[in-house]
Backbone:
């Protein structure tokens, strides 16, 4: 089993009696029917359908945790809070309150989301898990984990790539991160139009090379990079 301490991720806690309905109305995926033992990959978009964040939605006994890029966690928390209005919802940035570990080559016999002694373990792929509140001692690096994320094709929206892509450009719908049957959310009409009218002219692909050179050469926009392997949004 390999374990890496993850520092690039932040966590937002969304709690309150209306937390589920609130998130369902904001995110690209179905939160209304999300079971306690399941997580959901989702995006949060502008009114123009551009991604402000990609996130893993994790049910908790009090509401939900949203794992997203740490460098955008404060701004996302602030902007999300603007939509609370009279809803019974509280949003808190708990990035400093949790340790986050990525674990792979592990064979945990558990549901997709399992809580024990204040630690939550979340399955994110084949023999790959996220663990929050863990006391494991890391024996690998965060770059090792990022490499697995790249090979799994999971997009990572950070401050450098906010407001640049509709969800389909980073293949969010192929990863089950967009529910086209749910009700409205910010940017929903544009996301649906891109899906059904085939208007996506750029797609995220895996490449190898130097991220700095690719960005300077105009060959695409780098979404994630580790050890010469890249996720790049490029023309198709």
Residues:
């Amino acid at each position: 089993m390999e374990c890496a301490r993850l520092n690039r991720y932040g966590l937002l806690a969304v709690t309150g009696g209306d937390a589920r309905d609130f998130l369902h109305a904001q995110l690209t995926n179905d939160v209304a029917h999300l079971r306690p033992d399941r997580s959901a990959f989702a995006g949060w978009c502008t009114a123009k359908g551009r991604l402000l964040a990609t996130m893993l939605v994790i049910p908790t006994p009090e509401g939900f945790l949203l794992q997203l890029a740490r460098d955008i966690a404060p701004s996302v928390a602030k902007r999300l809070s603007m939509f609370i209005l009279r809803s019974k919802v509280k949003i808190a940035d708990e990035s400093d309150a949790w340790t986050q570990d990525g674990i792979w080559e592990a064979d945990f016999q558990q549901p997709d989301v399992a809580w024990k002694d204040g630690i939550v373990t979340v399955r994110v792929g084949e023999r790959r898990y996220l663990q929050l509140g863990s006391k494991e001692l890391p024996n690998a690096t965060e770059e090792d984990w990022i490499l697995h994320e790249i090979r799994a094709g999971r997009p990572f929206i950070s401050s450098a790539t906010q407001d640049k892509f509709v969800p389909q450009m980073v293949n969010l719908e192929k990863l089950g991160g967009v529910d086209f049957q749910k009700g409205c959310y910010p940017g929903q009409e544009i996301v649906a139009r891109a899906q059904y009218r085939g208007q996506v002219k750029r797609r995220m692909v895996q490449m190898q090379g130097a991220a700095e050179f690719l960005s300077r050469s105009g060959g695409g926009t780098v979404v994630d990079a580790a050890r010469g392997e890249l996720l790049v949004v490029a023309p198709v």
In short: The mean pLDDT is 94. Residues 142-151 form the longest helix (10 residues).
